[in-house]
Amino acid sequence: MKKSNSRLLCFAFSCCWFLCATAFSRSYDDIIESNEIVIAVYSDFRPFSYLGNGIDKGKEQGIDVDLARIIAKKLGVKLRLRWMTADESVDDDLRNNLWKGHYLKRTVADLMLRVPYDREYSLLRDDIGELVHQHVHMFAPFHTESWQVIYNSKKIESVETIAVFQYHDIGVEVDSIPQFYLTSAFRGRMRDRAKQFPSISEAISAMTESKVDAVMGLTSQISHLQSQLSKTDYPLAKNAFPMIGRQQWDIGMAVKADYRQLGYAVADIVESMIKTGEIEKIFAKYNVIYKLPNLYKTSE
């Protein structure tokens, strides 16, 4: 009898430990009461969220960091950033940082930034018909992202179509959509011209050293890095990207599905910032081209 009670007690303690160790999200009221909000941003993701160098060494900076600070301020609470390391997919990032937690670190954020805002993506279903993103609520698009090419005008006269890169080397970030696109589109005619780099900034550096003639990446990152160069020598191309799939997409935020009240409060803050031009000013601060999401465009 005593042995059975002992086993039962051990089981009870095990259950308590498991419940304490698993991730939990907090309601809007809990956040206000605790006087702190935890917002997840990506690590080393310039110009969105990164640690500064030089005189700003170690300082938390970036578009998403500034946006997180304003959200916390307008909610009247302190901000604690959760720095995320990108996993293999956004699905993994949402699971690890928002609704379940990583198996090594069972804590989650209250709010996650830089999440795709797309109806088809949010309603995606798995092989048995279950909603893939049933645990999260995606909302508040604050920027429209797209692909962009920057090129060395001393090497290329103009970039009217992507086909020019059958004859000129172009830098891309390794394991990125531009890499897969340039190595597979048009029956692989640009495959040998696509040169891989660990980051867009390193690809840009290679372009200034004439190791490649152009670079393809996110418009936001390209425009941010272009601000450090001569726009005459390194202009932005105006070409489209046939067969790449989606040419542009909205970026928003996400909360755990159970706590939409927080999402509604943050959405109101974001909408107000867009209407007053506050978000556009944040993008301008980092020399990033800003595109207003269609959700906020008024019909003429």
Task: Write up this protein.
Helix content is 36%, strand content 21%. With 300 residues, it is α/β, with parallel strands linked by helices. It folds into two domains: 24-144 and 250-290, D-Maltodextrin-Binding Protein, domain 2, CATH 3.40.190.10; 146-226, D-Maltodextrin-Binding Protein, domain 2 (3-Layer(aba) Sandwich). The chain has an eight-stranded mixed β-sheet with strand order 4-1-5-10-6-9-7-8, sandwiched between helices. Strands 2-3 form a two-stranded antiparallel ribbon. Helix 6 (177-188) links the parallel strand 7 (170-173) and strand 8. The termini are far apart.
Low-confidence stretches: 1-23
How many distinct folded domains? 2
Q: How many strand segments?
A: 10
Query: Can you give the helix content as a percent range?
Result: 25-40%
What is the ordering of alpha helices and beta strands?
Answer: HHEEEHEHEHEEHEHEHEHH
**Overall pLDDT level:** 88
Q: Mind telling me which CATH architecture of the largest domain this is?
A: 3-Layer(aba) Sandwich
- Tell me the strand order in the biggest sheet: 4-1-5-10-6-9-7-8
Task: List its traits.
300 residues; D-Maltodextrin-Binding Protein, domain 2; disordered N terminus; 2 domains; single chain; alpha/beta; two-stranded antiparallel ribbon; 21% strand
